[in-house]
Amino acid sequence: MADPLIHVENVVAGYVPGVNILNGAELILGDGELIGIIGPNGAGKSTMLKALFGLIKISDGTVWYRGDDVTGKKANFLVARGIGYVPQINNVFPSLTIRENLEMGGYLRKSGVAEMIDEVVDIFPRLGERIDQRAGSLSGGERQMLAMGRALMMEPSVLLLDEPSAGLSPVLQDQVFDRVKQVNSTGVSIIMVEQNAARCLQICDRGYVLDQGRNAYTGTGEELLHDPKVIELYLGTLAKAR
Amino acid sequence: MMGLVPSASASAQTEGESVETTLLAQTEAGGDKSPVEGVEIIVYDAVIVDRQIESTGAEVGRASSDATGYVSVALPAPGQYAVELNVDTLPAGVELVRADKQILPVEARIGQPTRVLFNLAEGDAAGAARNKTSDSVLTRGARLLFEGIIFGLIIGLCAIGLSLIYGTTGLVNFALSEQIVFGALVAYFLNSILGLNFIIAALIAFVVGGLGSAALDLGLWRPLRKRGTGLTAMMIISIGLALFLRFFFLFLFGERSRPYEQYAVQTKILFSVGPVDVLPKELIIIVVGLFLLIGTAVGLRRTKLGKAMRAVADSNDLAASTGIDVDRVVTSVWFVGGTLVTAGAVFFGLNSQINWLMGQQLLLLVFAAVTLGGLGTDFGAMVGGLVIGIFTFMATLVVAPELKNVGALLVMILILMFRPQGIFGRAERIG
Amino acid sequence: MDWNSIISNSLRSGISQQAIIFALAAIGLNLHFGYTGLLNFGQVAFMAAGAYGVGITTNTLGAPLWVGIIVGMLAGVVLGLLLGLPTLRLKADYLAIVTIAVGEIIRLVVRAAVLSDTTGGSNGINGFANSFQDWNPFNNSATYGFRLFDRINLEFSGADVWELLVGWTLVLLSVFVVWRLIRSPWGRVLRSIREDEDAATALGKDVFRFKMQSLILGGSFGTLAGIFYAVQQNSVQPDNYATQQTFFALTAAILGGLATIWGPVVGAMLFWIILSFTENVLIELIDNNIMPDSIMERSQVGPVRFMLVGLTLMLLMIFRPQGIFGDKREIAIDERK
How far apart are CA B75 and CA B20, in angstroms? Predict the structure, then answer.
């Protein structure tokens, strides 16, 4: 069997030495997959993304990327290797224009930045309309689009999205999830962390439920959506009604 | 006497100090000068602060000019004196161009003559010259505005340097004052000691100043950032560094002020704009200063590295996660900041003189400029510098020159009270 | 090398009037920075307010010395109010810059020739505190003290003993005041502000008021330092109130240990012992031609000892920010993000 794109193996990590948020988390991302990580507050969902993107120190376990050990590698190394990351907050450069934000996304590109901007604008037409305005003037939804667009500038194989729908109105959330699906359909594998668990699982191929820094459940999006335990613990009665 | 501050009095008693001048009068507007004989100059003890005579004491000596216009008065010791031209002894028709320049401050150097310059002119030439420099508020204002713009460019250069570094690292760098002195000293060494042409010396100094600044980042600030040292701690460390360097420069350089060799004597007026005479060195400052300021602004917006600098200033973490090598960008910022600061320093030394305290004299005004414009914005720092520079000079129309900095500092405090993000800063940057 | 005089001079410096002045200023800075987390870089402004308050009241207005001392203290309080109102709501680095600027404004104004009728301009004010020596119960022509091991001279004139007695009494009183206050509920609020201003606000504390009280009280110790300096020297000189004085006092406070009761006092004593020791050793080396003039002349000793101060401040903040007595967890230097 070929190596998975990303394999997070038994990772232990935290922000402060001695206080671990992740306690042996596991994750596998196959080529072209869209997977979701859900779970209660403080379960370590965002920490998982940060650990695998090298933003926090991993004290135990391994992160594999295309069969290579990339544990603890710095962000600029991973970006160059094809992993893009979109943080939850502060995910645009407010004093740079939208075009400049996208250019920064392609910082490590040797060439083709202008062409790539055109491609990103094709996916997110709203960005094209305001291309020379400061990103600080964008709305929350637009910032999320820009952040994703910026991550796409490197034509990544993998995109890590940290709660892309956070703080957005339901209409905008729908738009964001549509875009995520659309990006995924162009062949980019995606790991998405979400509070909006039900909505997330609807578009995901597979989902991981994280609790207290460990995998509680895994399965396809459909399976998890209809798993009574998952519904009771993490999706709530609202999800059942849907 | 337990002085906490090193005393400013000269220590060594050496033979041969004197004040000398050659009295030449302009015979026609823009024309030649001829020597003036038999004019008396009188030297007094004095206290001089910021090249202004603060008080005068006992007479030290007097002498009259010879046929070549030369006159010299021996001094008992190096130190501070006031030199007066006795206008009653001027021959008929010859006048002092500026009545307020009848008494000049002198800081006599050890063991060598110190030159002063009295501006004399005959008849019509005096009138023409005086028209340019007479005391009418309008013409004085114009001249002060011009000097203020030049000073503003100097402050603006330093302010952008400070602002860039603050923007990308969050560090309020008190050692900037000594980066100023360092840059000015490098140019002094190259120009006055090695004898290089001033322009070449200045250009080399810009690079050396930038490299020194980048070396500080590599050797000190980057390791501290890696250790997770807090910004307040780093600010205090920068104060320690400033004290160390300041007294090291005093150790090396002594207390005396020195000019750049090539421009020690005011050369002829290049051209005049209305009442404002433009000297060659002033033209250099304006042209090169504007070039650097505009170049920096354009560079920050048009080049890849410049955009990366702005991105890092917006957010270190986000910049890192887009693949920007933040450490390299920050070191580049230190280089660019150091270069700009050095340019400001060299121009300040060119415009007045170099001494070990010049950095301290500038630092608070640079802070004022940056505060006025808004921390972290290059355009704001530039405009803030110009406003502070012009304000400082124009203030002398209404207050004593020795108080000119007070106004600028008060403006800074008022701005902080009512608009802490500065005039061009955005509120989102604060807090 | 005359080691007896080197050691004697160093020890004398450690308890000298200068050490007293620095101890008082550092006690104030410690209350500001160590206990409250306020970055006051203009302690010298409080010193100048006190010194000129005394000088102007007694010399220019002709009031008795004790009135001058009261006016001096009040001047410090007023300065604290003026300084605090615009700045205490701002970020820490703005407070730092404004306090430095105010210190420099005061120095520039008092040394201005246009005000020399009131402040004496650059000559300062002299000879206004003669009555301080009139109150001296010691005999000025006698010497007091002893020789340590028969060699190290620790004898002082009557005038010195009187000044040192008054000065160290003031220091002890100040330490006592800080000690009581820090153990009180008021002191706990200050420390909670240093740890987390928002949390203190959330607990219903008027953070601004507490900061203001801390600024004024800590400033008052600086004012006291300035008054003592002026009275003891019988003179006020504007250039003794330059920006770097604050940083020297801050170095002393950090050396001893911020957020400790005795740290600033011990720091100030050590500061002057080290400074004096360095100076005396260098001078001996030069005078005995051990240090050739090509490396260093006597006039360069002053700069070298202040280079040492800068280096000390840097190294302390890098390697031991808690100083000698401090507790690293108590130092409010990594608060800012």
Answer: 10
Q: pLDDT value at position B253?
A: 87
Same domain, yes or no, for B99 and B150? no
Domain for residue C73, yes or no? yes
Residue range of the domain that includes B40: 16-120
pLDDT at residue B263 in the model: 67
DSSP state string for C262-319? SHHHHHHHHHHHHHHHHHHHHHHHHHTTSS-TTT--GGGHHHHHHHHHHHHHHHHHHH
Q: Is the CB of residue C88 less than 8 Å from the CB of residue C211?
A: yes
Q: Which of B1, B244, B317 to substitute to test the interface with C, most C CBs within 10 Å?
A: B244
**Contact assignment for A87 to B317 by CB distance below 8 Å:** yes
The domain spanning residue B162 has which CATH number?
A: 1.10.3470
Report the C-alpha gap between C212 and C189 in whole angstroms: 13
Token pair for residue C158? 């009557």
Do A79 and B311 make contact, defined as CB atoms within 8 angstroms? no
E-strand ranges in B245-371 read 271-273, 276-278
Please list the rounded mean pLDDT of every run of 10 residues in chain B (431 residues). 37 57 74 80 79 74 85 81 84 77 78 79 64 66 91 95 92 95 95 89 96 97 92 94 96 84 64 79 91 94 94 92 93 97 94 87 92 78 92 88 88 83 58 27
Chains in touch with B (≥3 Cβ pairs < 8 A): A, C
A96, B321: Cβ pair inside 8 Å?
no
Looking at the fold, whether B94 and B209 belong to one and the same domain comes out as: no
- For residues C316 and C324, what is the distance between their CA atoms, to the nearest angstrom? 10
Q: Which residue out of A57, A104, A153 would a mutagenesis test of the B interface target, given it has the greatest number of B Cβ atoms within 10 Å?
A: A104
CATH number (domain holding residue C74): 1.10.3470
Q: Residue B22's beta-bridge partner residues?
A: B70
- Neighbouring residues of C110: CB distance < 8 A, sequence distance ≥ 6: C48, C52, C119, C238, C241
Residue contact A95–B314, C-beta within 8 A: yes
In which element (H, E) is residue C173 found?
A: helix C158-183
pTM: 0.84
Q: Which of B228, B243, B412 sits opposite C310 (nearest CB)?
A: B243
Total Cβ atoms within 10 A of residue C4: 15
Q: Which residues neighbour C263 within 8 Å (Cβ) at sequence distance 6 or greater?
A: C30, C34, C253, C256, C257, C323, C324, C325, C326
Q: Is residue C7 part of a domain?
A: yes
Cα–Cα distance for residue pair B57/B51, rounded to 1 Å: 16
Let me know if residue C336 belongs to a domain.
no
Residues of B within 8 A of C99 (CB-CB) are none
Could you give the CA distance from residue A53 to residue A162 in angstroms, rounded to a whole number?
Answer: 12
C337 located within any domain: no
User: What is the predicted pLDDT for the residue at B127?
Assistant: 60
